[in-house]
Amino acid sequence: MGRQQSRVSRAFLKLAAASRNEIRMARLTAARFAPSLYRSLEGEPTPLGPPEVLESIQAEYPQPDLCEVKQYLSSLRDQVSSLEDAETAKGEEMEMLRQEVIRLHEQLNTLRAQAEDLQNSF
Questions:
Q1: Comparison of pLDDT for 59 and 111, the residue scoring more
Q2: 85: helix, coil or strand?
Q3: Per-residue exposure over 26-46, b if at least 16 CB sit within 10 Å of its own CB, e if not
Q4: Residues in contact with 28: Cβ distance below 8 Å, sequence separation at least 6, in sequence order
Q5: Whole-prediction pTM value?
Q6: Contact between 47 and 27 (Cβ < 8 Å)
């Protein structure tokens, strides 16, 4: 009976530790993605501890400026557009080269036929 009780106690302690860790991670995530919620508690202890902890987290993970994000997304769109244009141009160039190879092959066949006709005429 004592063994089973100690196993249950150990399992409960592991579960409690995992829950505390999950709660801690949830608080860190909330501090990162909902800073206005924590700013409303200025000067008061937060679930993360003293305000200095929150300030250090916010300093490590600053909120990006919306204009910067828009500019970054715009530059990514431009890069994608440039890559698509380059791919299209490359495809067109490959098609032109393929047509040129076909034309040269036909010309070669014509020249071979003419050479054979000339050889047969002598």
A1: 111
A2: helix
A3: ebeeebeeebeebeeeeeeeb
A4: 48, 57
A5: 0.38
A6: yes
Taking the C-alpha atoms of residue 112 and residue 97, their distance in angstroms, rounded to an integer, is 22
Q: Which residue has the tokens 């994608």?
A: 80
**Digit-coded pLDDT (tens) for 80-89:** 888 888 888 8
Dump the DSSP string for 21-63: HHHHHHHHHHHHH-HHHHHTTTTSPBTTBSHHHHHHHHHHSPP
Task: Report DSSP state, residue 64.
Answer: P
> In whole angstroms, what is the distance from residue 31 CA to residue 36 CA?
9
Q: Identify residue 45 by its one-letter amino acid code.
A: P
> What are 95's two structure tokens?
């098609």
Query: To which residue do tokens 């196993």 refer?
Result: 7
Q: Which residue has the tokens 């501890």?
A: 49
- CB proximity list for 12: less than 8 A, separation 6 or greater: none
